[in-house]
Amino acid sequence: MKSLFALNHYLYKYRILLGLGMIFVITSNIFALFLPQLIRIGIEQIQIYLPFTYVFSGLKISNLYIDLIYVLIAIISIIIIITTLIRGILMFLMRQTLIVMSRHVEFDQKNELYQHYQKLTPSFFKRNSTGDMMSRISEDVSRVRMYVGPAIMYISGLVITFSLVIYSMVSINAYLAFWTLIPLPLLSYSIFKVSKIVNTKSEQIQKTLSTLTSKAQESYSGIKVIQGFARDQSVQNEFEELATQYRKESLSLAKVEAFFSPLMLLLVGISTLLAIYIGGNEVARGRFTAGNIAEFVVYINMLTWPVASLGWAVSLVQRAAASQKRINEFLQVSPDIVSGDKYKIDKIESIKFDKVTFIYPDTGIMALNNVSFEIKAGEKIAIVGKTGSGKSTIAELLVRNYDPNSGEILINNCPLKDNQLSHFRNLLGYVPQEVFLFSDSINNNISFGNPNASKKEIENFAQIASVYDDIMSLPKQFDTVVGERGVMLSGGQKQRVSIARALIKNPNVLLLDDCLSAVDSKTENAILSNFEKNWKEKTVISITHRLFTIKNFDKIIVLDNGTIVEIGQHDELYSKKGIYYDLYQLQLQEEVDSE
Ligand SMILES: Nc1ncnc2c1ncn2[C@@H]1O[C@H](COP(=O)(O)OP(=O)(O)OP(=O)(O)O)[C@@H](O)[C@H]1O
Ligand SMILES: [Mg+2]
Is this prediction's pTM over 0.90? Predict the structure, then answer.
């Protein structure tokens, strides 16, 4: 339950709505109490005047008494209608305050979680599945809302109805009150038990349903592989198995739920029966009026819903507490990377890796070991090496997705950590190894790098990235929507669109992580010479597998197993006959083989 305390600041924020809501809960319950009393008064009045009609039967005065009874009934009915109307309005206002408050809290909480997600680093997103994060922001938040809104409303209404009704019952006849109230705790307890079973079952159903949906979703995205491997039937069978399980669980839930209202009616029926039987005896002894019996029956009915909802409300609170605990867990994850605030540079003059060592936290793999190098503004640098040698890790450290375990990265000779992070990242044009495009138009995907870019600029940068002709041959050209993650484009087209997206930022430093791997060498050469023409003054760091394209680069860094083994220009490294030479020979061989 403690986890729900995390919501107190929201309750405080919406204290006016909460306070008003409480007032409406109290007043609407007081108005509800008028009904049984008015019914009793009505019956008592009739009991008083009815005998006169018999006594004077046949006389004119008898008709007068009959008229009087009609008038009394009419007056009481009108009062009942008016009080019920007022109660209805108060209940409407109660919902307008408390339920509205719960929607506000839901909105705030969703935003709070989303904002927090935005601050977390890639390693958090690797550790937690998308499904889990989605369910915390949607399902868990809506369960918490059920506590903030309905549960608070019902529980407070229940406490008030209880105290008022039981007080009235006891003050009329404690003995009868005692007997009629006996079945109610039983009702509450059994409903609590039933709701628990219902909840466990619904949770299980929810889980099965989410497996079912993710299974379906995965098979839609992997349909090519499924059909290509002719596995349609077995995938279909797996799906059917899950669907059967879902049906079984749903039917079993329906059975339990079917038990719910008969049980409630039975226990309420017993209470009513007791009220009439024992009440009747009391009337015979003259301690009670017939009006009192009617009043009691209405009281019992008034208690039914609160007593029934008590079990339900308690289970709502329990579920909300469990959900809030899960939400708190995520909110308490503090981001690994925190922005510095000491520097806000306008230009990257130099980048220096000083004895940088980095170990991936999840796998414990040492991806970089004592790496040092320096890059000056305007230089063209290539990073090469075998797969898994740590090239991408250098890029990840430079954009500060991770921080080094030891050593330091210096920008303009000042620690990268002390730089204002988003400001620094704005100076970088990073094209990650794994291309990601949004399911939006090509136009919007490119202008993502600079939302203020004009149509002309977008076209210009598409030309520099050598993707302009490809785009123009598409049916809707720049307005073509690329589909989820860009599925409508070829691998090489996606890569070049993402390069255009980085270029349009007009960054100081262009950081390309193997982003031309799916492009043929001719196109790669064209792009690099475009850079040469248009971007002379820019710093380019290019991680690549293709050694022919980097012959003219100012510096080539050769990585092997996380350490720098060679560093220098092409001719230098080639004549050394070391690892670079071997890699180069290997590629020459491949080139000859493929011809
Ligand atoms: N997110 C990660 N979590 C844990 N270990 C990782 C992660 N990313 C990479 N590694 C490990 O770190 C090492 C270096 O990986 P890195 O991605 O830097 O290699 P790379 O040189 O870019 O390779 P490639 O040419 O295949 O892209 C590898 O051994 C890899 O298994
Ligand atoms: Mg890589």
Answer: no
